Amino acid sequence: MSKPTTGDFTKTAGWLDWYAGPAQPRFQLPAGAVDAHCHVFGPGAEFPYAPERKYTPCDASKAQLFALRDHLGFARNVIVQATCHGADNRAMVDACVASGGRARGVATVKRSISDAELQALHVAGVRGVRFNFVKRLVDFTPKDELLEIAHRIKPLGWHVVIYFEAVDLPELWDFFTTLPTTVVVDHMGRPDVSKPLDGPEFELFVKFMREHSNVWSKVSCPERLSVTGPKAQQGEAQAYRDVVPFARRIVETFPDRVLWGTDWPHPNLKDHMPDDGLLVDFIPHIAVTPELKQKLLVTNPMRLYWPEEN
Ligand code: 0GY
């Protein structure tokens, strides 16, 4: 793969660039596997970062994303609009269109979007909108505006992706449970994995999924959630081992409502940048049977993003 660049923008101080020499995973992905959470950044010279952004990344182009897809053995991508592009979806849309049907998108939209613009996003491959409640990433959009957007995208067959921190789930519960579409949670609602697996915080998340059959979860981002970090134990792929029980519980309890993604190019990591090849090697630790792997990597994302091919 080529190396990250910065274009005309100055990266946020301390920014960690994506890793340009990922290992070949030892785990062979099943045919048709989908990387269901990744982003493109710019390139800033072509698709400028949004004025309201909270960080400025290195560039991460569609060509670089597609090279990673092929290297790791994925067949398809779901490209999630990154907050550094605000509600300007052009970079994500450009990548979806260029993929030749091998990428779907999740957009950020405002109440002012027209029906014709929504339709154009659909034609480009967008199948969802993302509502972000992580304070360091966005200024909040009022809930009445989000609910209005959710009702407008429902007839298109789209879903809502929600990103929040575990401590905020109690306060957001009523809003999330009124959403009229399928709801996909990013990174298991960001549990604090130093807390007990059966403690009240994670139990609330499990209850959220158990009581609401429209709620799905991405069991992604061990590199973001882990306290033990990327160091393997005794040379085995036990990187991020403290995240394993949390992800495994969700995969085994809700096998038909889980997705997995690399999160490349890994925005805002502070202490290390994961090798995406090793991240793929994390998958067999959380989806331990061939059936679970097939659902997580192929059946579920295909049902949600390419239902016409089912
Ligand atoms: C992620 C996580 C993060 C960032 C974004 O759109 C974004 O900027 O999603 C984060 O900083 O935790 O899923 O990519």
Mean pLDDT: 95
Each distinct ligand: (1E,3Z)-4-hydroxybuta-1,3-diene-1,2,4-tricarboxylic acid
Cα gyration radius (Å): 18 Å
Helical stretch count? 11
Number of domains: 1
CATH superfamily: Metal-dependent hydrolases
Quote the beta fraction.
Answer: 5-15%
Looking at the overall shape, the CATH architecture is: Alpha-Beta Barrel
Report the major sheet: 8 strands, parallel
Low-confidence stretches: none
Estimate percent helicity.
25-40%
Which CATH C-level class is it?
Alpha Beta
The CA-CA distance between the termini, in Å, is 32 Å
Compressed to H and E, one letter per element, the order equals: EHEHEHEHEHEHEHHEHHH
General form: globular
Q: Which structural class is indicated by helix and strand composition?
A: alpha/beta
How is the CATH topology named?
A: TIM Barrel
Question: Order of strands in the sheet with the most strands?
Answer: 1-2-3-4-5-6-7-8
Got a strand count?
Answer: 8
What does this structure look like?
The protein has helices at 62-72, 90-98, 115-124, 143-153, 169-176, 200-211, 222-225, 244-253, 276-280, 283-286, 290-305; strands at residues 34-38, 76-80, 103-107, 126-132, 159-163, 183-185, 215-218, 258-259. The protein is α/β, with parallel strands linked by helices and 310 residues long. It has one domain (34-309): Alpha-Beta Barrel (TIM Barrel), CATH 3.20.20.140. An eight-stranded parallel sheet has the order 1-2-3-4-5-6-7-8, sandwiched between helices. The mean pLDDT is 95. The structure holds (1E,3Z)-4-hydroxybuta-1,3-diene-1,2,4-tricarboxylic acid (0GY). The site of (1E,3Z)-4-hydroxybuta-1,3-diene-1,2,4-tricarboxylic acid has 9 residues, from loops.
